[in-house]
């Protein structure tokens, strides 16, 4: 048995060495296939890892569980449980309210090292506070306060011990440590010492939920990430603390896992395409190799070699090729992944990490090896089942049957002979054309999909002007919007109005007050917000649904009144945003009419019988001391309706109305601008951006600026992943197709050396032979382009058109990648056969005629 295996190994090794050209092409194909598997695994694993890391940073901590209110004794009991890995403690002092921190929440706390490190807030320079007058802050807060990143600097924080109180406490500290700020989190931490915390909380009862000062919080890291809620419930049950409420980190939720899986779907679809492309070329390589060596396998059969042993020889050669190609592909694929991950995830905040999970290399190796194994099945079966007699009669057409001789009165032409050569092995021809066409069709589809994206549609849903400037508290959903803010002051307005190329400007003010819901509006609300609608609402926003139900029961709601002029008013009264009613600018300017905002319902989905949950057209609403007539119901455009409310302490149901800004200023003369909109000439965009950059750098670092240009760049960052993956897969598959074409042409010419010598010996010239081979290459290219143009036209015209029907796309039929690739394919179709011919001519006709 050992001797038999030794003989098989020897035959396998010598057969392997005898096919050097085949080996080089096969190794390259296997390496390319492994490279794409590895890089896609790296991208998918890194995408998941970075998405989870980003969610950690957004939630503010990376522990599995957090307790909002817990006693020190309870925390100690929980930390002692065997299923708990680590527990971090923190005591809340209050919120800083320095004017320079407007728009950025700063929580003053004591925290132990565990709590700080799991909150991405552990000092990287300096230490955590030890003395009563020490504080540690992040760089975001230091920059807003204008304090240098230097230990020992004085820091004064103004804060409230109780958010409901007007009393402000001023405390001055010495900076003892700092770290890079977490921009993804809504709040920053100001760590104080335990001594300071004990002094501030001495004699206080922190058991009440409304009490902030002295509130004890905890973060728990479990020993396992599996079944977190069940584990935590069991821990609390074991400790007789079942009534204690906790929150699970969103990064560990099933929804997050589903989101991460959804983001990696393109990578796994890419792997399917890579498998198909890899199969096409590796199968073709081994099919050609077996066909060329079929007489050798027939001779082995004559000597008594079994079908199983011949298959073992084929698989042995494949394994040897894998041993060379797969490691090379793993290394190159991981290096490519390291380059692509930062490109793909460039829009994410924080440090981007490239996953080095061993599963990447195990999975890539397994997938590549399976691709090779499956590709070898049919060639191995062909080699194993051939009989010695069949092997002697076997030719490149893949059949030993006699064909009817073709007759022609016109004689043989070079194009006709070239075309006939393609038909000698139809399977190989189909494989080569399929392999080449696959990459070209994919490239056309990805390009057409990206070309159909309409940036104007996308931006119109996010911003209504070239630039939007907001008050620093506009998005402050913790402390609430301050209608008397100072961000959008007269100096800034004057700078904007003095800009060259200013084409339009607009202002937005807002105020919040109580509203008595009239009978007709109440009926509208009850008709729209049925029990089923409220139930569905509660499934994702329980407090919002409860607030709506309470408002209908009490007949009271909070009214948000917007004062608009210019760009925002002109936008919201456009035809597509007028859900019901008509806009009369002259009547509206009198200050006797309002526009009532409706929910975000597309105009096409409603008719005159549709009841909207707002005040009806023509009805009267009393806002404050004034009575208004409702002129129209309008769509809540994001740039106008999105933002924080004034009162964030109590969740209320809000109804929004729009009045002219001049009338608004008469009612609330002390209110300042909430938003400033302006458009400038395209040639002046850069100058306007520079002015705002200088202002935010030198005058007010808290000014929120939204521009169409930055949002366009942000979109490109966010969609970079799909673009990179799509184009990378298409290009590699196209390269695999070209490699398949090269291999097929080279093998077809080399295997017919004797045949070419015979036809040259009876009169065919070198020039005629060269032209015939070039025609053969051009036929390959012609059929490939015909298939590619046909399939691309059908795919782009149907699938891509359907995909562009929704969202921010305007379908544009284009086959631009094919137009670019056509001359390249034609050039290769000429150059490769010509190069093969020149190599062929190195041997004389006599030498080739003597070949076996």
Automatic annotation (TrEMBL):
How is this protein annotated for GO cellular component?
plasma membrane
Query: What name is this protein filed under?
Result: Putative ABC transport system permease protein
Q: Which domain of life is it from?
A: Bacteria
Which membrane topology term applies here?
Answer: Multi-pass membrane protein
Q: Where is this protein localized, as stated in its record? A: Cell membrane
The entry's family comment says:
Belongs to the ABC-4 integral membrane protein family.
Signal peptide boundaries: none
Is the keyword Hydrolase in the record? no
Q: Which GO terms describe its molecular function?
A: transmembrane transporter activity
Q: Which InterPro entries match?
A: ABC3_permease_C (IPR003838), Macrolide_Exporter_MacB (IPR050250)
Question: Which UniProt keywords are given for this protein, alphabetically ordered?
Answer: Cell membrane, Membrane, Transmembrane, Transmembrane helix
All copies of the ABC3 transporter permease C-terminal domain together span 270-388, 728-843
Nucleotidyltransferase in keyword set: no
Q: Which residue ranges does UniProt annotate as crossing the membrane?
A: 265-286, 321-347, 359-377, 430-449, 728-751, 772-791, 811-837
Q: What Pfam families does the record point to?
A: FtsX
